[in-house]
C-alpha cells in the first residue's frame, strides 16, 4: 500500500520468510510484483542468523521451485528464485540454483557487492571479488538480478557490462555504503533500475524521492568535483527509474511505457499543489518537484487501485488498525527477548 500510495506500480522483492503471504497481500492490493523466498542454506560468519532462516540445500531448491511454479500463472504477481547473499549460501546451492533458473526459465534475485565484509569474504575464501567469483562459477549472466551492486571496481563494472546481468540502485542506502557507479552502468548498457531497499530503510517506499537522491548522488560523485554539473538530470533519472526498472524486471514487453499492446500501469499526479503550482514544464515538475505525496490516482493493469488517494481494493483503516496491534505485539516480544 505504501508503494501504491507513492506511485510505484511494480516491485522486485529480494526475499522474505513468508513469500506467499507477500504475494497474497500484493494480489489483494492490486500491485504488480515479483516475490521471492529468503534463501539461506548456511549461517554467516558469527552465527547471527535465526535457525528458522536456515534450510538444507535440497530444501532451498525444492521450496524455491515450488514457489515459482505456484505463482507462474498469476497475471500480476510472480516469483523468482533467490540467493540471499554469498555469505549465507553454499557454492553447491549457487550453482544448483542457476541450473534450476535455466530449467524454469526464470531469474535469481540476490545481493552482491553491498559491503566490505562481502568483498573481504570472497577474497579470503576464493581469491576473487564477488562478481569475478560468480563469473568463474559460470553463473554471472542474464539469470542474475543483483541488489545494491554498490562497491564495484573497474573490473567488476566491466563484468556487469559484458554479462547481461541486471541490478538495482537503492539510493536511500547505497550512498551510506560507498559511491555508486550508476552513471557508468547506465551509459554502459547495464539494466540497472532504482529501488527503495524497502520501507525498513527510511520508513517509506517513495521512488520519486529515491530518484532525487540518485540525481544528487551522481552529481556529487561525477559532476561537482569537476565543475561538470549533473551527469544525469532529473528528467533522465525518471526515465531510468521507469524504463530500466521494467527491463530489470524482465517485463519491458509489458510495462515501462504507454504503448498499444502493453499493460495500462498509469500514475496520475497533481499539478496544482502550492509547491509545484508555478511550473509550466510538466516533465520538469514531475521529475524534480513531485514526490509520493503528489500521487493522486494509480492504475495497474487497467484497474484503478487508488483514486484521489483513497484505496478501492482494500480497507485502509482496518489494515492500519490491525497493523498497530500486531506491531505492538512484535515490539513487546522483541523487548522480552532482548531482556533475556
Provide an overview of this structure:
This protein has helices spanning 2-5, 19-29, 57-70, 91-104, 116-126, 130-137, 154-163, 171-177, 182-187, 199-202, 207-223, 234-248, 282-289, 316-338; strands at 10-12, 32-35, 77-79, 81-83, 108-112, 144-148, 166-169, 191-194, 266-269, 295-300, 303-307, 310-311. With 340 residues, the protein is α/β, with parallel strands linked by helices. The chain has a five-stranded parallel β-sheet with strand order 4-5-6-7-8. 43% of the residues are buried.
Task: Give a quick summary of the entry.
This protein is of the alpha/beta class.
Secondary-structure blueprint of this entry?
Elements: H1 2-5, E1 10-12, H2 19-29, E2 32-35, H3 57-70, E3 77-79, E4 81-83, H4 91-104, E5 108-112, H5 116-126, H6 130-137, E6 144-148, H7 154-163, E7 166-169, H8 171-177, H9 182-187, E8 191-194, H10 199-202, H11 207-223, H12 234-248, E9 266-269, H13 282-289, E10 295-300, E11 303-307, E12 310-311, H14 316-338
Parallel strand pairs: 1-2, 2-3, 4-5, 5-6, 6-7, 7-8
Antiparallel strand pairs: 9-10, 10-11, 11-12
